[in-house]
Amino acid sequence: MLLLGRDILRVHKARDQINGPHNAPYAQKLDLGWVIIGDVCLGDVHRPTNINTLYTNTLENGRPSLFQPCPNRFLIKEIQNNAYLTNLLGESYPCAKDDDHLGCNVFQRSKNDNQLSLSIEDKIFLEIMDQGPDLNNKLLGVLIRFRKDPIAFIADIQQMFHSFLVREDHRNFLRFFWFRDNDPAKDVLEYRMKVHVFGNSPSPAVAIYGLRRSAQEGEVDYGRDVTQFVERDFYVDDGLKSSPSEETAISLLKRTQDMLACSNLRLHKIASNSIEVMKAFPSQDHANDLRDLDLGTDTLPVQRSLGLNWDLKSDTFTFQVNKDEKPFTRRGVLSTVNSLYDPLGFAAPVTVQGKALLRELTVESCDWDSPLPAAKEQVWIEWRDSLGALSSIQIPRQYTCTPAAGIKERKLCIFSDASTEAVAAVAYLKTVDCKGQCHIGFIMGKAKLTPQPEHTIPRLELCAAVLAVEMAELITSEIDLQLSEAEFYTDSKVVLGYICNETRRFYVYVSNRILRIRRSTHPKQWHYVPSEKNPADHATRAVPAACLKQTSWFTGPSFLYSSEQNDPADGYELIDTTSDPEIRPQVSTLCTDTSSMHLGSHRFKRFSTWKSLVRSITCLLHIVKFFKKGFPSTSNCKGWHYCQRAHTVDELEQARNISLLSVQQETYAKELECIKSKKAISKDSVLKKLDPFIDENGLLRVGGRIMKATLEQEEKNPLIIPSNHHIASLLVLHYHQQTRHQGRLFTEGALRAAGFWIVGAKKLVSSVIFKCVTCRKLRGMFQTQKMANLPADRLSTEPPFTNVGLDVFGPWSVTSRHTRGGHANSKRWAVMFTCLSIRAVHIEVIESMDTSSFVNALRRFISIRGPVKNIYSDRGTNFVGACKELNIPSNIDKNLVEKYLSDQGCAWTFNPTHSSHMGGAWERMIGIARRILDSMFLQEGSTRLTHETLTTFMAEVAAIMNARPLTSVSNDPEDPFILTPSTLLTQKVSTIKAPPGEFDTKDLYKRQWRQVQSLANTFWDKWKKQYIFTLQSRNKWQSDKQNIEPGNIVLMKDSQIKRNEWPLGLITRVFPSEDGKVRKVEVKVVRQNETKLFLRPISELILLLSSTELSNG
Hints:
One of its GO terms (molecular function) is nucleic acid binding. This protein is α+β, with helices and mostly antiparallel strands.
């Protein structure tokens, strides 16, 4: 309170005055605001009634106990007229009439609107207001209670939000601009609201709170049932209630009207399925479409409340389907699916199919108004048109018609099911009357699409069971009926086994849902129902709307009308405990109490390094300390744990001694016993010559003869380790790595320096080094195999150049043309064709290393030497291109070869890449040709080489090579014949003279064919008897080697990079020869995240790990 004296005249100067009735107070407007002047009652008699009072107590710290108005951040202009909205429509708040439509747009600021020069800090006022607590009832709860009793009614509170005033100091936040007298032709004025409005965030909370406060204050005068009606059966301003009798309904409605009228609230728009209830109220309190009806003769229309269509005459719920055809777009499909509002799930088997179609049609992101795939349009149209059949379905509003007095027991029965499309649950109310008859009423149903990605059927059935439990909790808490029990049914015995399980554990997904089910239900409440009798099955498989009434969806299965149960007495067991992926493996823990110090060295085989073995034993010893009685434990080290701290040297040495002692006790038990009992060791023992003794730690050490040497004990008396134990291999590998993979002597020296004496160390060290992958990478030998038998083409007596091997060699620089300034040079290469049987050669010069130039050379060769049956070469790019150019098949199977030979008479076989040794027959000839050419070039000196000269040289080289003897030259004068390839090619030999005597030319021609035939026969006879046997022996690769197998890890040679950078490869395929030996393989190599396959000979590979070594670890 602010007290101002009369001496401050300026403050008390009246700017305006409003006079009341005679002897009544009057108001004056001062500079500080309006003041009331009148008589003050000092006693309790005739105390005025407080209309609206706000008390604010200021605490000692200066803070108010109630909230203050929001800080005024708006520029508020003083308005001369206090009746802000009186000029608008003559009421205390604006209200648009039905026949008044103003063609004006309302501005709404969007997030992207920057045309009003708004700063980034500007916010919409509605977004920053607190909407208050959610005091509203659950929609499903109001609907569930609405169906209990036979007499039902609905009502509405007239303009509920506008019935509650806004505090005077808060009204400035509700200012707005509008036309004077609601006329767009007049000026725009500034108004402010006196009441709460629709769209304002806190309006629902304020209105519901005021409504409930009104009911609580009137409970004493109007009854507890009125308060419960307002608090439990209103959804915002809509009230839905069912009563056991008409009298009860009429009394409840009238008392509610009177109670709300005390707070200036009007309950109207009453509608009921009872004519007597409607007649008890004046027509102005009836629903709008009931006011002009003759309740005695006219048919009561369908009422719509909270999304449900209620037929008053039949007391049933119906559907009104919107038949407007929407476009086949994402927006249109979504609008049609959502237009069928079904909060209680009456049509869930139908609507879930629409949801599934919507997800299927919009699986790919598309624009809201873009056409959807035409292939699915017919399916969509059929479902959309089938919705019209829902109009003929009527669902009774009341659960059962049994009077409440005649009901003996009520049960809640819920069924669940799942498929790959949807999960569903449906609930029924089962009532048993005094005669033992059962009555079933549909409560609600629910169907949801299965989550994506797809889950297994048992998981989906479990999700359906969780949905059933959640539905049961909702119904139990909202129905306001005494239920004896809740029964759950599912057609999945797997889920029943999960729920009834008491022995096994599940993985997280199943475990969480089982925990949710067990938290609200008991396993005895769950029962099995066959799929054909499960009504929830209809909602998972999409029933057409026209067939919904013929199913058991609304009535429930027939067995519910009886009281028999066929469940096993001991519950349900898990179906398959061995192969069910949801069940955790069962781990058995055995505790053994022993006083032995043996660790069991067989466990050491689980370790691959000496360091990991020692550290593991160190951790175990650390844990053992904290299980000993009386050992002081720290806060971080208690019981079984993994300690992150670093191990000390003493701990590591203790772990080493324990592991070595365990090995020695297992291997040298007899020797230890003899030494302890001071007996001589057996002469057959391998330790006899080492003179072993036991040190202070109980370990065997070498005695020997150098006890007096000035060396450390580890060097004089090393620890004895058996070579056949895994720990010896770990030690050798450890010190082999310490010496950076050097040889056997380095490794043995490091072992001895560390204080270890391994019995038979040389053999063990050699074996470990041989198996070392790093050493194989650095120094491993390439793979070899026994030299293969010669192919049949090398041993056949067919005409020359029937089977040919070829290769290209060169290049040579030749003068191609003369220019003014000198000569223009170019390169030339030569193609050598080698006959595989008689070892003859044919050389063609080519101008480039491309396919075209090689094809021309091949054509010249065939034209001169005749047709070729088989061609062999490496995988040069020009050879492969020529093979494709001439349509010659390469590396094809036998059947295709035979077919092609009959058609074209030629086949081309390529050797693997980097396998020149497989073409030794022609590689050897190229070497000879190079030596002859070198001699020719040396004799020519500095003479420039031309194309013609090179061609001539090649012809002479071929002649020299074809004249070479294939076998050693005989010194027998009676055997002057020399076996050369040219003998068969030219059919001439200088040592054979003409027949003696005098013959004319005619006689000589008659005998010419005999001479040629004799010469050919002589050649092949010599070839068989002398040449072919020179090919018998194998000069290298004489022994069989183990074949490379698929799965082996190899190092593949790459001549372009260093050996330590050669890529690793995995053998994927092998190609055995006729003798079963593998000489070429397919290798998979990964380089730069790219996987490639290579065909390579084994001579290019180094074996790192065989498949057997990989499987043995």
